[in-house]
Amino acid sequence: MRDFWKRYCRNRGAIIGLLILTLVILVAILAPLLFPQSPWKMVQRPFLPPFAQGDLLLGTDAVGRDVMAGLAHGAYVSLLVGLVSTIVALAIGVPIGASAGYFAGSVDDALMRFTEFFQTIPSFALAIVLLATFQPSLTFVIIAIAIVSWPPVARLVRGEVLSLRTREFIEAATLSGLSNLQIITRHILPNALPPIIVLASLMVAQAILLESALSFLGLGDPNIMSWGYMIGAARTVIREQWWLSFMPGMAILLTVLALNLIGEGLNDALNPRLTRKSK
Q: What are the TM regions of this chain, as residue ranges (predicted)?
């Protein structure tokens, strides 16, 4: 663990990303304490500019809601959607990729054709169709994002398993009498974990962007405040009250940037050999 942290700290961008993400997580956790009132509640006259009033640092939106409260509560929604949808996507993609890579042959062909079917459809378009078909609630948003996010996981895990299944320690495990499930879970997947972790960090960022885009189009949960909804609600007044779109946009930018920087740091820390070769 010490060696991992030393390698991670060598990447200054990764440290910056970790600090930004920690700040976003703290804001999301403390949002109910900092802003106990509902972010939907009208607190002042509409279009109050930033710093015009002491207790409303970022002003108010088109209906007089506190922009700062919306950003804080929106941080929780974005992180929740990104994390849970990524976990669900991993739960779908890892077993499919591991089965395809380990058993190969007809099993590999069938599972990869199934995966390619989802990859032929643009992910954003598929998410729109799914949410337009079902009720646009937070649960369905998470499910839709997970459905369009698992194919890259399956292909990555398949490639890792294909390279590991012929190793000597796997042959030794087979000769010792372990079942296929035990070999996959105890020997193959732990060795394929580093690239999966790196991909997962990037998938969280992608899920946040996708949720924001869906909320911008009005396909998010109408009962939950999110950054994408705030941008969409302010698009009609973007010239006059630019800060209403700028603030949530910067929140999305910084969070996604932080996750990408963390992903690069994890890649350097978990794959030191690749880092040395690149140097």
A: 12-35, 75-103, 124-150, 196-220, 241-262
